[in-house]
Design brief:
This protein has four helices and no strands. With 107 residues, it is mainly alpha-helical. Helix 2 (31-52) packs parallel to helix 4 (88-105).
Length: 107
C-alpha cells in the first residue's frame, strides 16, 4: 500500500512538473507579451543610441530606463494574474505607456 501511494505521488509530481514547463514555454512565447517585451528592447537600444549621439543626457536616459523597467515589471505582474499571458486590453495599456516614453526618446 505504501509503495502504491509513493507511485501515485510520483506520477502526480511528474504531471505537475510537465505542466509547469509547458506553462513556462507558453509564457515566454505568448505573442502579446513578446510584442511588448520586443518593443521595450528596441526602446532600450534607442535610448543608448540617443545618449551616444548627445541627444539625451545621462540623467534623462536613467529616467527613461527606469520607466521602461516599470513597464516590464507591470507586464510581468499582469501576466502572472492571467496564467502567463496578457489580455488585449492589457497589451493596449502597456503600449500606451510605451508610446509616452517613445515620444520622450525621440527618433
Amino acid at each position: 500500500m505504501k509503495n502504491w501511494s509513493i507511485a501515485i505521488a510520483t506520477a502526480a509530481f511528474a504531471l505537475t512538473a510537465a505542466n509547469a514547463m509547458a506553462d513556462t514555454h507558453f509564457q515566454k512565447t505568448h505573442p502579446w507579451r513578446e510584442q511588448v517585451n520586443n518593443r521595450l528592447q528596441r526602446q532600450n537600444a534607442r535610448i543608448h543610441q540617443q545618449v551616444r549621439e548627445g541627444e539625451l543626457s545621462h540623467a534623462q536616459a536613467v529616467r527613461l530606463h527606469a520607466q521602461d523597467r516599470s513597464i516590464r515589471a507591470q507586464e510581468r505582474r499582469m501576466a502572472a494574474h492571467n496564467g502567463g499571458h496578457l489580455t488585449k486590453g492589457q497589451q493596449k495599456f502597456l503600449n500606451r505607456r510605451e508610446n509616452h516614453i517613445s515620444h520622450r526618446i525621440g527618433r
